[in-house]
């Protein structure tokens, strides 16, 4: 449990209750996307608490806002287009929603946190007008280069009111992996309600809290993820602002995500599907309406840390060389929580040129282009974005040619 001093300043972002109960405490950690340049390696680096609470009143699992969104997202290192599987996921969604919602030249699709245009480009290809809203200027520029109209703004009730006053309303609002990223979740959802046409639909994708707990996915906890959502908690948040969940899909992305479909509560259609009722019942039966369900996760995380360190210590004692693949936010959470630095992992590689020549936050593990692996031929390659393990191991089939093996740490240590 947290100290009385910490509890006194912790307040639920949804219902305003004081937060007293710990879900997971991962100690102190830097911002997961704050990659360091060579010049910054010898300068002070800020660390913040990575302490997740569960609200006793509304059961929303959440991290406090230690850093403003502007500090995290204004210059952002994550570009969605560097994952082939994620692009395929986006393309399939755009094609399915265009058909399902009968979108055409008179429609408007708005994506919140639209990144580098990875998704909206597929609506444009079908002749559907789009608007991206993306706060990170460096990422938004890439979207504009693709021909995706993009506003470089943070979304909330103020921006939504401004757009609505100028006659902009959306047939479809897409909020992929952003609902969990907003500290003012109430302003965000209220803005969606204001921007959505009376017969419009909004879809959200976010990591499923039930799958996070089942899969021991503690590395998906980092400072830019302010909320950790189940269907039950997301439904409560949306209902407060007049939005009704009418359908849900369970997705394999990010280790297990939900795609939630919602409409105005005042709209009679679409009707609430059986999938919503079935998943809500499963969450109820799994205990997600009881506070004590959330208390077992912290001990499971500690046990995994010990398992990871035991593997690394044994490998290094045996004289094995270890490199990483990827420089994702989840990897930085894991490495900092476990205290893994260049004493265990020599370097990591990443496809994103933006990260080349930089160093991971906190651990200062150097980041190289993927070609570095073939040059040094490590005995083990740790896949830090474990949710892409199949895609990455196929891309790096050459590792097996020199007898190298792959490793993932989540949900437990696995060598393959």
UniProtKB/TrEMBL annotation:
Residue intervals of the C-methyltransferase domain: 252-411
Keywords: Methyltransferase, Transferase
GO biological process terms held by the UniProt record: methylation
A Pfam family it matches: Methyltransf_13
Domain of life: Bacteria
InterPro entries given in the database record: Methyltransf_Zn-bd_dom_put (IPR013630), Methyltransf_Zn-bd_dom_put_sf (IPR038576), MeTrfase_14 (IPR013691), SAM-dependent_MTases_sf (IPR029063)
Any one GO MF annotation of this record: methyltransferase activity
Methyltransferase putative zinc binding domain mapped to chain residues: 12-73
Protein name, per record: Class I SAM-dependent methyltransferase
């Amino acid at each position: 449990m947290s100290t009385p001093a910490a509890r006194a300043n912790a307040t639920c972002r949804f219902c305003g209750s004081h937060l007293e109960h710990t879900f997971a405490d991962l100690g102190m950690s830097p911002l997961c996307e704050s990659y360091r340049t060579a010049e910054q390696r010898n300068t002070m680096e800020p660390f913040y608490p990575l302490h997740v609470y569960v609200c006793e009143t509304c059961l929303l699992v959440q991290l406090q806002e230690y850093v403003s969104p502007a500090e995290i997202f204004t210059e952002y290192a994550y570009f969605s287009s560097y994952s082939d599987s994620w692009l395929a996921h986006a393309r399939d969604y755009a094609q399915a929603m265009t058909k399902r919602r009968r979108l055409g030249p008179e429609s408007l699709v708005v994506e919140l946190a639209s990144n580098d245009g990875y998704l909206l480009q597929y609506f444009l290809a079908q002749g559907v007008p789009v608007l991206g809203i993306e706060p990170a200027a460096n990422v938004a520029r890439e979207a504009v280069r693709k021909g995706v109209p993009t506003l470089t703004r943070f979304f909330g009730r103020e921006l939504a009111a401004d757009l609505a006053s100028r006659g902009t309303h959306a047939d479809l609002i897409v909020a992929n992996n952003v609902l969990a990223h907003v500290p003012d979740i109430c302003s965000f959802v209220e803005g969606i309600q204001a921007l959505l046409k009376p017969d419009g639909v909004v879809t959200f994708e976010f990591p499923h809290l039930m799958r996070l707990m089942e899969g021991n996915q503690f590395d998906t906890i980092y400072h830019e993820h302010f909320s950790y959502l189940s269907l039950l908690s997301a439904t409560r948040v949306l209902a407060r602002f007049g939005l009704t969940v009418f359908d849900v899909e369970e997705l394999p992305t990010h280790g297990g995500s939900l795609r939630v479909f919602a409409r105005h509560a005042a709209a009679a259609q679409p009707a609430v599907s059986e999938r919503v009722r079935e998943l809500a019942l499963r969450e109820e039966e799994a205990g997600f309406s009881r506070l004590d369900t959330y208390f077992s996760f912290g001990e499971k995380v500690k046990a995994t840390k010990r398992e990871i360190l035991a593997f690394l210590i044994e490998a290094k004692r045996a004289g094995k060389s270890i490199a990483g693949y990827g420089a994702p936010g989840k990897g930085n959470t894991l490495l900092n929580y476990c205290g893994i630095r260049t004493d265990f992992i020599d370097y990591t590689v990443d496809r994103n040129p933006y990260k080349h020549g930089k160093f991971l936050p906190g651990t200062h593990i150097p980041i190289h282009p993927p070609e570095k692996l073939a040059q040094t031929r490590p005995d083990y390659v740790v896949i830090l974005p474990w949710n892409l393990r199949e895609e990455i191991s196929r891309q790096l089939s050459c590792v097996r040619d020199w007898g190298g093996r792959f490793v993932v740490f989540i949900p437990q240590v696995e060598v393959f």
